[in-house]
Design goal:
Radius of gyration: 23 Å
Distance between the termini: 44 Å
Number of helices: 13
CATH class of the largest domain: Alpha Beta
Largest sheet: 6 strands, parallel
Bound molecules: 5'-deoxyadenosine, iron/sulfur cluster
Strand content: 15-25%
Oligomer: single chain
Shape: globular
CATH superfamily of the largest domain: tm_1862 like domain
Amino acid sequence: MGSSIDIRLETLTGPRAGGAGLPSNGKAFFIETFGCQMNVHDSEKVAGVLLGRGYQQVHQPDDADVVFFNTCSIREKAAQKVFSRLGLLRPGQAPTKIIGVLGCVAQQEGEEIFERAPWVSLVCGSASYRKLPDLLAQIESGNRRVMGLDLDVDETFETELTRRDNPFRAYLTIIEGCDKACTYCVVPLTRGPERSRASAVILEEVRHLVDFGYSEIQLLGQTVNSYRDPSPRGMNFAELLVAVAQVAGIRRVRFTTSHPRDFHPEIVQAIEAVPAVCNHVHLPVQSGSTRVLAAMQRTYTREEYLDIIAMIRASKRPISITSDIIVGFPGETEADFEETLSLLDLVQYDGGFSFKFSPRPNTPAQHMEDSVPEEEKGRRLAVLQEKQRGIQLARNEALIGQTFEVLVDGCSSRVEQWAGRTSCHRVLNFTSPCAGSASAGASLLGQYVQVKVKRAGPNSLVGERIT
Ligand code: 5AD
Ligand code: SF4
């Protein structure tokens, strides 16, 4: 598919918002998303498909004829959530709504979802979303239960319509699925093998996004930097980054998530050479212990990871680094955990996420002895988060007095504070009257403004606008 149409948020306000003048079929849908940015963006595309078929979008399941849950199964807690949501929708007598389960739980549980919640009529995993219009048509023609669970696909989910939630930053998938085999992770099982999209299609979509007013693009992929252009152009990830950043009208390009194995110096060179490429890298380490990394099958050692960090830190342009960390992986000893803590000291991450290991169905780690007691996992997580909090606070405090450009993406009228993000992905709030308040000036939403940092917390900065 060569081009896509983007339905902007502004055209979709109101309790039963329609799709930018598309003919209505009189029905409404609700979609709730759990999990990662890939899921958020998939939901945007699913919403686009539904709007294209004449559905309207509503913001309460009660108002909807069709209810979709786009689910996450990365950890057990996330997976459980969907069943509690489904429980709330159990119909009294005759089923009144079409209920669909999408995403990773759909892929993982498959038909069993119909057993656990017989009022569900559609189950579809992300690797089969290109079939969604067909599946919906089958339901509309009276089919009670339909499924899309094929994983063996060489296509990506490309839609004519995408209904993006954020009016300033557009998500754009460049690579779907994952070919890595981390032993704890369900993603290769739920999202299927890696498929990169052709660079020409991506670049055309970027040009469309500029036409729709977006100036910041976030390139998405489970291992975004494993991107390999399948077309004869054969761009690598760094080349694509530069090409996207050079599209007229693009001010910022972000990318997430990077895998250390495929993190090459060219990426740092692209960040250095092209100011529109944001100076932030999300580079999950998962553990600081080479022994645990081997058990996780992360394909790098602690030392190799630290070499990559040194390469990034040596850049002429300061680059923020964030990470994901799992504590309590099977066999993780106190000494292994201490290595993770010492890695935090060495790397000095600017932010990140940390989790207790959660055994997932059909992953190799599910069959390893979950040897760290729950209580100990909790303790390790608290220790790690406390340490990281201190590091972030110190790193943020070091920025006091510096001026950053922020893209303004929110406003709290209660405190008359605007919220923005720096290129290095920090939240930088600043005081200035908000639109709608008594002392309101012009809206700053979607604008790039210069802000001088005055105060710092572990998770955000506060500053003053420089005009
Ligand atoms: N248990 C805990 N955390 C996990 N993650 C992935 N799988 C698991 C699991 N089974 C974490 C990793 C990954 C992030 C998205 O979720 O840290 O980078
Ligand atoms: Fe999961 Fe590893 Fe692939 Fe990331 S790289 S999605 S953690 S298997």
